[in-house]
Amino acid sequence: MIVLGAFTSLSGLLILLLRNAPLGGLSPAVVGWVMIPLGLVFVVLGILRNRRKRALKGPGPVGNPIQRAKALPRLWKVWRSGKYPELPRSQVVLWAVGLLYLVSPIDLVPELLPVIGVTDDAGVLVWLLSSLSVASGSFLRWEKDHGDPSPGIESP
Fold first, then answer.
1. Are 116 and 24 in contact (CB under 8 A)?
2. Chain-centre distance of CA 61, in angstroms?
3. What is the mean pLDDT of residues 84-111?
């Protein structure tokens, strides 16, 4: 959410500075001045959400991005076998919907609108990648805690 907010604010600033033609019938000044505070709101909400999550949770996900990426096939295999109950089916369905949205030619906000048309796809992509990263990091922690002998994260 923080990255999406920063991207939205930066897009609004770039529209203010570089764009002269109207965007979807709106003046660039209106679009820019709406996007900048909207992005800042997303950044603040993301920071607050991260602080709340850290305060409520015990140990978080483990592993660097490479380890997490390598863990995704194992996560899928163990989840499909029913041995990993911590990943809800609804999360997997949301991942599939997000992936379908990214590759689908149907779009909620058409790409004909400069910057704004790509923002929805970027937001879905950021959510999908961060969600997969957190899930695979949690899976690595689960593997470590359950003593799974498969090649996961090394115990200290």
1. yes
2. 15
3. 84
Residue 24 dihedral angles phi and psi, to the nearest 5°: 60, 30
Integer-rounded Cα radius of gyration of the chain: 19
**Cβ contact 36:155 at 8 Å:** no
Whole-angstrom distance between the N-terminal and C-terminal Cα of the chain?
32
Phi-psi region at 147: left, alpha or beta (left = phi > 0; alpha = psi -120 to 50)? left
pLDDT at residue 7 is higher than 60: yes
Positive or negative torsion for Cα 62, 82, 69, 102: negative
The pLDDT value given to residue 156: 47
Question: What's the confidence (pLDDT) of residue 153?
Answer: 52
**Is-contact 23 15, C-beta < 8 A?**
yes
d(CA 65, CA 140): 11
Instruction: With beta carbons less than 8 A apart as the criterion, state whether 12 and 35 touch.
Output: yes
Which residue bears the tokens 């997000």?
98
